Amino acid sequence: DIQMTQSPSTLSASVGDRVTITCRASQSISIYLAWYQQKPGKAPKLLIYDASNLESGVPSRFSGSGSGTEFTLTISSLQPDDFATYYCLQYVSSSPWTFGQGTKVEIK
Amino acid sequence: EVQLLESGGGLVQPGGSLRLSCEASGFTLSNYAMSWVRQAPGKGLERVSVISGPEATTYYIDSVKGRFTISRDNSKSTLYLQMNSLRAEDTALYYCAKGRNLGEWLMGSWGQGTLVTVAS
């Protein structure tokens, strides 16, 4: 199975900060990478698909990049509503889909 | 508006069975891939099973193969997950999720989940 490693596990930041979360795949997954946001007690919300495509309705401060084995999620200017846990997901069809372990973005 | 409402969770003893339901509205269930994704308490996410759109191809992770069955009743617009021979490690919040678009398996819209607790 493809392993997904997110870093950092926890990130402390302030409103207005630029935040970057990294996800590394144990083998190439092309661009089959999505990012989800999850707030406590809520279901995950799709932010980014195909590594860099913004899901409809998601604020433009969110962006994704990467291909192959290394990917990033960037929040250009952190807002109060963005404090949450973020998960990457690889969805290569020939392999069981796997999520990263999550990155919790906390208030500094 | 897409809405997904899970039900059927609860406390069950090891070896027992449960059937989860996910009532869908705002779209035609049979046209979309539907997934069950679980999250153990305080842990990450794990996609357990998928049923594709019109062709109804099914997929399971290894740890639930032979124990869980995904199905749907298009007339009731309801997705199911029959869970047998439950184990403590199946304890989790179970979400149903709709494919992002026609023909896509990537989870777009999610329900709020139903909690399954396997304990004696």
Short descriptors:
heterodimer; A: mainly beta; 7-stranded mixed sheet; 4-stranded antiparallel sheet; 11 strands; about 0% helix; about 50% strand; globular; B: mainly beta
Report on this model:
- The complex is a heterodimer of chains A (108) and B (120).
- Chain A is mainly beta and 108 residues long.
- Chain A is built from no helices and eleven strands.
- The radius of gyration of chain A is 13 Å and the shape is globular.
- Chain B is mainly β.
- The chains are: A mainly beta (108), B mainly beta (120).
- Chains A and B meet through strand 4 and strand 5 of A and strand 5 and strand 10 of B.
Uncertain parts of chain B: none
How many β-strand stretches of chain A?
11
Number of strands of chain B: 11
Which chains share the greatest interface?
A-B, 20 and 17 residues
Short summary:
With 108 residues, chain A is mainly β. Chain A is 0% helix and 49% strand.
List the helices and strands and how they pair.
The complex is a heterodimer of chains A (108) and B (120).
Chain A (H helix, E strand, L loop, with lengths): L3 E4 L2 E4 L5 E7 L7 E6 L6 E5 L3 E2 L7 E6 L2 E6 L9 E6 L7 E2 L3 E5 L1
Parallel strand pairs in A: 2-11
Antiparallel strand pairs in A: 1-3, 3-8, 4-5, 4-9, 5-6, 7-8, 9-10, 9-11
Chain B lengths: L2 E5 L2 E3 L5 E8 L8 E6 L5 E7 L6 E3 L7 E6 L4 E6 L8 E8 L7 E4 L3 E5 L2
Parallel strand pairs in B: 2-11
Antiparallel strand pairs in B: 1-3, 3-8, 4-5, 4-9, 5-6, 7-8, 9-10, 9-11
